């Protein structure tokens, strides 16, 4: 009874975490979509009369040193962060998952090559890759996507391989081999569907890390370039004005915190929802 009550409590907590995380993430996604067609003010407009304006009805989050509306910039900045993170995680999944399935399905030399390549990429964090790419091609959102995406490839490759290896020993996989299915079909029809929940949870984690990486790259000038708003660059521009215009740092910082917090809650809720040991432990 105690185990069952504990599991029920965990489920309730899980549902709250899942709901809260999904709500926060949905708010920012909606904000990004709305910014495509409407913002309270033109984000590129410079209004000398509104320079460093405090939060008010006209500028709910205040205005920066150029008179640009902070709320409008945060809305468009959400679009920038989500776009960069989405493409970066997409690159990691589209390349890393097939590599992981290949390594788990073939083993031997191919597995060793994939894993050693992953080790090499892991030796260069996203910020270092971005600096190297920027040194050759210049800074920009596209280069930030490439740098973060390349760093995500070994993450998904290792996770896919590690999750797939135990499944290759299952009875139904052995039956599929006996039935004449090749390794490619087995990977697609039996392995991938069984490890998909783990990959989905990891994708939410990597998405939150990609948002932080994009903000960090923009902070040091390697991300989205002006006049495109970016949360990280908004923080960088506000650091010399915190003493007399704190809202310039508070609101973009709060946006980063809430979005990443929501993604982490969502990932934690999904992890608990997909965890089969919770059900087994209650029996």
TrEMBL record:
* Record keywords, A-Z: Cell membrane, Membrane, Transmembrane, Transmembrane helix, Transport
Q: Which ranges carry the ABC transmembrane type-1 domain?
A: 78-267
Compartment(s) of residence: Cell membrane
Q: Name the source's superkingdom.
A: Bacteria
Kindly list the residue ranges recorded as spanning the membrane.
18-38, 82-105, 117-135, 191-224, 244-266
Gene3D superfamilies (UniProt xref): MetI-like
Q: Which CDD domains match?
A: TM_PBP2
Coiled-coil regions listed: none
Q: Which one Pfam family would you cite for this protein?
A: BPD_transp_1
Q: How does it sit in the membrane?
A: Multi-pass membrane protein
- Annotated InterPro entries: BP-dependent_transpt_permease (IPR050366), MetI-like (IPR000515), MetI-like_sf (IPR035906)
The family this protein is said to belong to: Belongs to the binding-protein-dependent transport system permease family.
**What is the designated name of this protein?**
ABC transporter permease
- What species is this protein from? Hyphococcus aureus
The major lineage groups are: Bacteria, Pseudomonadati, Pseudomonadota, Alphaproteobacteria, Parvularculales
């Amino acid at each position: 009874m105690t185990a069952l009550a504990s599991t029920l409590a965990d489920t309730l907590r899980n549902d709250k975490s899942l709901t809260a995380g999904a709500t926060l993430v949905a708010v920012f996604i909606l904000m990004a979509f709305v910014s495509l067609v409407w913002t309270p003010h033109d984000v590129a407009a410079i209004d000398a009369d509104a320079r460093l304006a405090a939060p008010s009805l006209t500028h709910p989050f205040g205005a920066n040193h150029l008179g640009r509306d902070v709320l409008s910039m945060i809305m468009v900045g959400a679009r920038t962060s989500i776009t960069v993170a989405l493409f970066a995680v997409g690159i990691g999944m589209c390349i890393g998952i097939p590599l992981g399935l290949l390594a788990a399905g073939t083993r031997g030399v191919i597995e060793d090559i994939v894993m050693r390549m992953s080790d090499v990429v892991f030796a260069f964090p996203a910020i270092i890759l971005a600096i190297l790419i920027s040194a050759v091609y210049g800074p920009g959102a596209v280069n930030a996507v490439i740098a973060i995406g390349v760093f995500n490839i070994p993450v998904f490759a290792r996770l896919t391989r590690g999750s797939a290896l135990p499944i290759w020993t299952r009875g139904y996989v052995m039956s599929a081999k006996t039935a004449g299915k090749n390794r490619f079909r087995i990977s697609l029809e039996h392995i991938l569907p069984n490890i998909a929940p783990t990959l989905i949870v990891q994708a939410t984690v990597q998405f939150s890390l990609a948002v932080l990486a994009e903000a960090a790259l923009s902070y040091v000038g390697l991300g989205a370039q002006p006049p495109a708003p970016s949360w990280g660059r908004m923080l960088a521009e506000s650091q010399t004005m915190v003493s007399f215009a704190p809202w310039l740092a508070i609101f973009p910082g709060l946006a980063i915190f809430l979005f990443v917090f929501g993604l982490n809650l969502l990932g934690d809720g999904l992890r608990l929802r997909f965890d089969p040991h919770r059900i087994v432990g209650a029996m």
